[in-house]
Design brief:
Layout (H helix, E strand, L loop, with lengths): L2 H12 L9 E5 L21 H11 L4 E4 L4 H7 L7 E3 L4 E3 L5 E2 L10 H10 L4 E4 L4 E4 L7 H11 L6 E6 L2 E6 L4 H9 L8 E6 L5 H9 L3 E5 L8 E3 L2 H26 L11
Helix pairs in contact: 1-8, 2-8, 6-7
EC number: 3.1.3.12
Function: Removes the phosphate from trehalose 6-phosphate to produce free trehalose.
Pathway: Glycan biosynthesis; trehalose biosynthesis
């Protein structure tokens, strides 16, 4: 039995998820999926070894790995540096294709809404206002009892707004461009190389990821929920650290598979280094 088969058997003994296959197109949420949630967005920590694993998966999947997040692309690059992966930020309002280009639609009319939202946050210290390139979010993780107040304030702010809608998430409500979601972002990636023709796999944790789960299911792919709730995802793991372990194990197995193929194709060539 070779090392790759050992990796697979060891993983199945630990988790219900099958390892990532070489023909997959992998899409990953960031907060609550790749990284554990934190009291505020800037306090999130990236686990040691995660960047190396993502680099290995990106190589083994011929570039078919993208981050699909509510964060701006620039923040994703900061947390995952030096990687600059294909990315959809702000739920798809920002989109970086293989040419390293970020496409951002014209900013909607969020500016006029800010004074009343800032006043709300000033009155309630447990709230936090997060401004993004084309969106704004109110976090109430430190004051969950204020959820009804936040929902009412956002609904009032959007009453006369055009081209904007509200997107509730885990202890947060975001105001973003209407008609933009993670499902559309994944569908856009799947229409172009290197993602086209592959089996889509998307992992996420929040209700904001449900549009992505629905799209990958329609495309015959696999949705992986991090957590436990009603979902359109087909599989689940209980926590981000389990999801990361799945990624580490998959990267390790895929790297060995690539090395074996190289040895078969070029028996006289030295064995490639394991990037992990």
């Amino acid at each position: 039995m070779d090392a790759c088969q050992n990796d697979v058997l060891r993983f199945y003994a630990m988790h219900p998820l099958p390892l990532i296959e070489p023909h997959a197109a992998l899409f990953l949420d960031f907060d609550g999926t790749l990284a554990d949630l934190a009291p505020s967005p800037e306090l999130v920590q990236v686990e040691s070894g995660l960047v190396g694993t993502l680099r290995a998966l990106h190589t083994c999947l011929d570039g078919a790995l993208a981050i699909v997040s509510g964060r701006p692309v620039a923040e994703l690059d900061h947390f995952l540096q030096p990687l600059r992966l294909p990315s959809a930020g702000v739920h798809g309002a920002e989109f970086r294709n293989g040419a390293e280009r970020i496409v951002t639609p014209p900013a909607p009319g969020i500016g006029p809404l800010l004074p009343r939202l800032e006043a709300l946050v000033a009155r309630h210290p447990g709230l936090m206002l997060e401004r993004k390139s084309v969106a704004v979010a109110i976090h109430y993780r430190q004051a969950p009892e204020l959820e009804p107040l936040v929902r009412a304030a956002v609904a009032d702010a959007l009453r006369d707004a055009i081209g904007l809608d509200a997107l509730p998430g885990k202890m947060v409500i975001e105001i973003k461009p209407a008609g933009v979601d993670k499902g559309d972002a994944i569908a856009a990636f799947m229409r172009s190389a290197p993602f086209a023709g592959r089996l889509p796999v998307f992992a996420g944790d929040d209700v904001t990821d449900e549009a992505g789960f629905s799209v990958v299911r329609e495309l015959g792919g696999v949705g992986v929920l991090v957590g436990n709730r009603a979902t359109a995802a087909t599989l689940s793991v209980p926590a981000p650290h389990v999801l990361r372990d799945w990624l580490h194990q998959s990267a390790h197995a895929l790297t060995h598979l690539m090395a074996q193929r190289d040895d078969t194709a070029n028996p006289q060539q030295p064995r490639r280094e394991d990037p992990l």
